[in-house]
Amino acid sequence: MARRFAKRFYKSRAWEVARAAVIERQHGLCADCLANGELTPIAEVHHIRPLTPKNITDPNVTVSLDNLVGLCRNCHIERHKHMGTFKGAIKP
Prior knowledge:
Layout: H1 13-25, H2 31-35, E1 44-47, H3 59-62, E2 68-71, H4 73-83
Antiparallel strand pairs: 1-2
């Protein structure tokens, strides 16, 4: 679920364009599942370098395709658990 400071960003046109570009780049398939030989559709786009109140206006973090990866819901949760940033259910 988007944190309060990021909610406006996730409704922006810039995010919609970046998200669509990630899905197209990955042909709609979860990167982590694909690396394991599985074909699972992307459900969420993950920021590799997490968004913070300090970087929410930095396009190199927010919409750079180098900082974004498409994941299925389970892989997204696993990434956040590994990062120590999982705080319960992540909503689509």
